[in-house]
Amino acid sequence: MRVLVLTWEYPPIVEGGLARHVRKLAENLVEQGVEVHVLTRGDRPDEVRAGVHVHRVDEPATPRDDLDGFLRWIEHMNDDMDRAGRELFAAGAFDVVHGHDWLVARAAAALARRADGVVVCSHYMRGQVADVFGVDEARVRVIPNGIDPLDLAPVDDLAALRARFARPSEKLVLLIGRLVYEKGFQVALDALPRVIDRVGDVRFLVAGSGTHEQELKAQAERLGLDRHGTFLGWIGDDVLRSLYRIADLTVVPSLYEPFGLVALEAMASGCPCIVSDTGGLREVVPNDDVGIRVQASDPRALADQMALVLANPALRFRIVTEAAEHIARFDWTEVAARTAALYTELTGDRQLVG
Predict the structure, then answer these.
(1) In this structure, which of 67, 77, 213, 308 has its CB flanked by the most CB atoms within 10 Å?
(2) Which of 121, 97, 119 is closest to 109 using CA atoms?
(3) Is the Cβ–Cβ distance between 262 and 252 less than 8 Å?
(4) Cα 148 to Cα 28, 235, 241, 318, distances in angstroms
(5) Angle at which helices 185-199 and 213-222 pack, to 10 degrees?
């Protein structure tokens, strides 16, 4: 079976969790015997990476603070992907066209000619897609994101890294992700003064960048948090892996969250996490054995739980121990097997697309 996957990010271009997801899915589909071609953007020549055939269209830098410019950029990228995809089809037909995320939807739809199946990463998103797009829920398949703990092995001197951000007596709280309003970091910042008052020596790290970054920095200054933490900006995967290992707690305070990969990465790295009781996070953290859930947009409730976890080593140990077993259900081999099975189901009579 030959599959063409369209995605707006793929290593070495990493904007967020999507690039990691598509790479691991593609590589594990190859292990399942699928011939995978990825059409993405970048200025490298075509290549084969870990068995995956990677084709790229060269695009200008992504507009960061101009929504209209960003939408025009997406249209241009889809035009380029459509042309490049047709050239790939001219060289050989594909059984399946698999578009990832809305940013490549137009090009994927044009190349596929019809949308036979829809895959989402959580039951929460199945309901959202069915409602917003008027799709029968029975046609929407839920296949979660995966995790490979081996990908999260730290690369830094952990003791030295932790010493950069916190003294031995201080507790370190990690906030990581795109700095946009829906990720809810403003709720965590509102909670931190109460946590500091109760626990004492607490420091925080904010890792990531985005359109809400300046507002968050201004909020931290208003709250008097400047001397209690650091905004790191965007960081690469290598540093990210190490941050999970040195933190005492990861907080995922999202207001809206389709899945919640940060929580899964924290659990796989042995860091306890507190998440908002919303969206796909309810499925990533299904009970208080593997993590703590709190009502979204409630800084007081979040502060209560943060203080409880930070002040209770036994609780942190129990959560980490239970989470280590829980993450096994997000194995990439299983995710790829379920995706390949869906491809086979959709192709049915083996008629080629394109």
Answers:
(1) 77
(2) 97
(3) yes
(4) 11, 20, 12, 22
(5) 30
- What are 186-204's pLDDT values in tens digits? 999 999 999 999 999 999 9
Q: How buried is 27 (Cβ within 10 angstroms: 0-12 exposed, 13-18 middle, 19+ buried)? A: middle
Task: Answer left, alpha or beta for residue 184, where phi above 0 means left and psi between -120 and 50 means alpha.
Answer: left
Strand boundaries in the chain, DSSP class E: 2-6, 35-41, 47-49, 52-57, 96-99, 118-120, 140-142, 171-176, 202-207, 229-233, 249-252, 273-276, 292-294
Domain ranges of the chain: 2-146+331-347, 149-328
* DSSP structural state of residue 101: S
Distance, CA of 276 to CA of 230 (rounded, Å): 22
Its pTM stands at 0.85
| Residues 6+ positions from 331 with CB-CB distance below 8 Å | 146, 147
Instruction: Tell me which architecture the domain covering 2-146+331-347 has in CATH.
Output: 3-Layer(aba) Sandwich (3.40)
